[in-house]
Write the structure tokens for this entry.
Amino acid sequence: FSRIAPRVNFSVEEFKKIYGNFFPYGDASKFAEHVFRTFDANGDNSIDFREFICALSVTSRGKLEDKLRWAFSMYDLDGNGYISRNEMLEIVCAIYKMVGTVMKMPEDESTPEKRVDKIFKQMDRNLDGKLSLAEFVEGAKSDPSIVRLLQCDSVGGSADGSN
């Protein structure tokens, strides 16, 4: 970490530059802004070493529930406790830009809008047009592809995140 980002605190611009190195075939800047916002626990527009390590711990070694709560907080752009279609679309568009043409998407996910429709059909149990934390967690846990992605360990991981 110290070789890549030698300072203890770094800004969103520095974070975007570092994050972009991991996705050379797409534009990771918008998604990196969302990750930055979620890492920046105290909202001071910089990520210090403690914030970075805490977020990294949750995203890389945390239990599935913790990872899902973290992901929910990234998608919940206005912090109102729900993910709207527009919030989901904002993040999904950023993801599609980030992966560029490297990943071939199935037809029902060929555009960000189609992906968001598919997610809401799967997760919005009460059909109110927004996802609560409970709906998000339940829906994500019922989708093996999301569980694998969050666990980053499709061989040794268990569905409950206990690895």
Residues 21 and 28 are 9 Å apart (CA to CA). Residues 152-163 have pLDDT under 50 and may be disordered. The radius of gyration is 16 Å.
